[in-house]
Amino acid sequence: MALFRRSPASLALRPRSIAPNTSRRAFSASRTRCGYDDTVQNLRIGKHTRVIYQGFTGRVATGNAKDSLAYGTNIVGGVTPGKEGEHLGLPLLPNLRKAKEQLKPDATAVFVAAPQCGKAIEEAIEAEIGLIVSVAEHIPLHDMMRVFSILRTQSKSRLVGANAPGIISPIGSCRIGFQPLPTFAPGHIGIVAKSGTLSYETVASITRSGLGQSLCIGMGGDIIAGTNMVDALRVFESDPETAGIVLVGEVGGRAEEEAAEWIVDYRKRVGEKAKPIAALVGGIVAPEGRIMGHAGAWRGAGERTAKEKYAVLEAAGATMVQHPEDFGGVMKTLLSQSGRDVSKIVGNAQKQQLSKRGYHTMRRRPAAAPYRQESRITSNAFKEQRRALLLGPDQAPAPLEPYVSQAGVSLSDTEAPADAFHLGVTVDRTARSPCLAVSPSTNPSQLSQRLRHFPYDWREGPTDATIKSAIAHMQLDAAPPAARAQTTALLRALAKMYTDKEAVTLSAAVSIDTASGDLVLHQPTLHLQFDDAAFRSCNRQEDIHSLRRKNLEDPAELEAEAHGIVFLTLPSPPASSTAAAAQQPNIGTLVNGAGLAMNTLDALALQHSGTATNFLDTGGKATAATVKKSFELILQDPRVRVIFVNIFGGLTDGGMIAEGILLAFREVDMRGLPVVVRIRGTNEGVGQRIIAESGLGLEAFDGFAEAAGRVVELANR
Q: What is the pLDDT of residues 62-110, one digit of tens each?
């Protein structure tokens, strides 16, 4: 096939976004004098913040509100549709309009399940509530893109989440979310994190150091977030109570890169007065092409790896750590090096802590102040959530063909030629919207540099100008008119399919046949990824979900899915590789929380030269039975020589984990393998006591470094 040739392209540094058209009428009734970026100061919560709940009378919201009230949060009432009266001695109203008028809230905690959550957030935006915190898991991606398309049109409401632990000001005694309260202590370190569990371990380290926390913001683990790292950094910079800053990132998206760019600018602006910043990035050893527990924990085309993000943050001036338990000591050192009086900062934090019941991650807590393990909002089908469905090239033509045929483009079963173009639609995490993703090259060595995003409004679709800009970047100016027209039609068709079928990414390589002047789409390059939550949470897109072929998937991963566990079997390096000669995977890992599970793999490999056989997140609703099933999954792999249980209890109870370990030893053939246990956080003392008194020969540790060192020693015996 003769192919259209184009002029050489200059290389862009990284994929960049062009702001989407936002000319649509504003959703909020207020006049938009500023914009969504100007709502970041709504994140500065404290004793003054008047909080309401949406879904107030639900079981999870009720328990959460009781704990938050006891903590000191200024909860003034809540909303449950169709109900009016009192709940927990506070006003209960049937809708947000009445709540806004009568209660005058500053913030709302959205404790509404995934199928209704998008609508609940929209109602809060329409009511012009200043801060909206959404904690539910498994909200369909396109529900949230609609929400973000609305948020951009107004300047009153700020969103935290979705799928986020929330926001908490220990120094202001205000929690909006489900963070484990005993772990927090008033103080002067600001924290922003994608992962809930990683943030809890970070908080515990800061608490143990005596520094405490001023404000902690959970971004959430979804593909797009209402509040990102730069938003948090802007707040921390101007907050007089914040003396130092911690960032906790992970694989996927550009949030960490954008934070690094902000840090460079900040240090130039402020100079020696800059607040010290420490950071961690999870997923450095995560395998390519896999979703690492969180819906957003995957690397898209053109995005940096977690290892590259680590390097970018370090180059920007952030001090990098490899495990969150190190943050406390590192931050004290940084504060001292910056000329700040650490003893004074710690003393001020201790004065704040005297008036509050503290946990400080010690082994014992006052018997009179037990901590209730909390739940979080999930969809009813949480046990089967995968968050993505990827169709192979042989499956893709069925759903794609009706859209491609309308564009007048033919599918070819041939491989893409060397000078093909990359073309598709995906999500732009920075713009929080869909985008056209195009490149003048499909060469893997160039794609990450030449791919460019052209965002557009989810409700409007791509404009003529957006499509024209995308085609110009593809360098199709000199292409035959028919090919340019087909490219325009194909981009429109893919954008329509993207919305119709609730896709995450639709992409392929295309080329131009100079003999006919027509555009050719190469079937072997098709990449069609769909959001599984649309079906699991809302029973939408059944036709797409029916294409899933479980018979081709890892049986252990499917078994885990049925029990609410996220489990990935990690491959061994090729026998001929240098890595294979150095270390074969032989450590089974059992961890709670996707972020902590990623970091466990990283720290084992980078700090202790250990290699894991699997990624396992027990899930936020883990039970003793879940822990037992986790052991069964790990033990199916004959490579495993030692099992490492690494738990930091936030939502997960340390005592329950310990009971699950004992259950596994009673009912599962453990193959005589050694088990090393580290339990910290919620009810850690109970869990540690159960392990110590079990008589099973389990090895228990407090610190990660000691535990991981022992694990690697046992693995290599």
A: 999 999 999 999 999 999 999 999 999 999 999 999 999 999 999 999 9
Contact 681, 183 (CB under 8 A): yes
Q: How many other C-beta atoms are found inside a 10 Å radius of the C-beta of residue 116? A: 18
The count of C-alpha atoms lying within 13 angstroms of the C-alpha of 29, restricted to the half-sphere facing its C-beta, is 7
For the chain, percent helix, then strand, then coil, each to nearest 5? 40, 20, 40
Which parts of 570-682 fold into alpha helices (H)? 578-582, 594-608, 624-635, 654-667
Question: By three-state DSSP, how is residue 491 classified?
Answer: helix
For residue 23, what are its two tokens?
Answer: 């000319």
Cβ–Cβ < 8 Å for 121, 164: no
**C-beta contacts of 663-669 below 8 A and 24+ residues apart:** 663/624, 663/625, 663/627, 663/628, 664/627, 664/628, 664/631, 664/632, 665/694, 665/696, 667/628, 668/628, 668/631, 668/632, 668/635, 669/635
**Contact criterion met (CB below 8 Å) for 175 and 148:** no
In terms of Cβ atoms closer than 10 Å to its own Cβ (0-12, 13-18, 19+), residue 16 is: middle
* Structure-token match 């079906």, residue found: 535
Using one digit for the tens of pLDDT, what is the confidence trace for 626-665? 999 999 999 999 999 999 999 998 778 889 899 999 999 9
349 Cβ contact partners less than 8 Å away, ≥ 6 residues apart:
185, 186, 187, 188, 210, 211, 212
252 by DSSP, 3-state: which? coil
Confidence of residue 579 (pLDDT cuts 50, 70, 90): low
* Residues 631, 388 contacting (CB under 8 angstroms): no
Whole-number Å distance between alpha carbons of 522 and 440:
15
Write the CB contacts of 393 (distance below 8 Å, at least 6 apart in sequence).
523, 524, 525, 526
Could you tell me if 285 and 605 are in contact, meaning their C-beta atoms sit under 8 angstroms apart?
A: yes
3-state secondary structure of 46: coil
- Separation between Cα atoms, residue 557 and residue 443, nearest integer Å: 32
Neighbours of 518 (CB within 10 A): 16
Tell me which of 87, 138, 294, 473 is the catalytic residue.
294
What does residue 520 show for φ and ψ, rounded to 5 degrees?
-120, 130
Residue 203: φ, ψ to 5°: -60, -45
For residue 152, give Cα distances in angstroms to 19, 24, 100, 455, 467.
11, 10, 21, 13, 21
Identity of the amino acid at 99: A
Contacts for 198 with CB less than 8 Å, ≥ 6 apart: 248, 250, 280, 282, 324, 593, 595, 596, 599
Q: Give the model's pLDDT for residue 104.
A: 98
Strands 642-649 and 614-617: unpaired
Q: How far is CA 124 from the centre of its chain?
A: 23
Burial group, residue 673, by CB count within 10 angstroms (0-12, 13-18, 19+): middle
By C-alpha distance, which of 168, 201, 198, 171 is closest to 183?
201
Cβ–Cβ < 8 Å for 526, 490: no
Identify whether the C-beta of residue 622 lies closer than 8 Å to the C-beta of residue 656.
Answer: yes
Q: Quick one: tokens of 536?
A: 């699991």
In angstroms and rounded to an integer, the radius of gyration of the C-alpha atoms of the chain is 26
Residue ranges in 453-520 assigned as alpha helix (H): 464-473, 481-500
Residue 4's alpha-carbon distances to 180, 226, 440, 520, 635, in angstroms, are 60, 42, 12, 11, 54
- β-pairing, 410-412 with 518-530? parallel
Parallel, antiparallel or unpaired: strands 518-530 and 566-569: unpaired
Residue 294 is a catalytic residue: yes
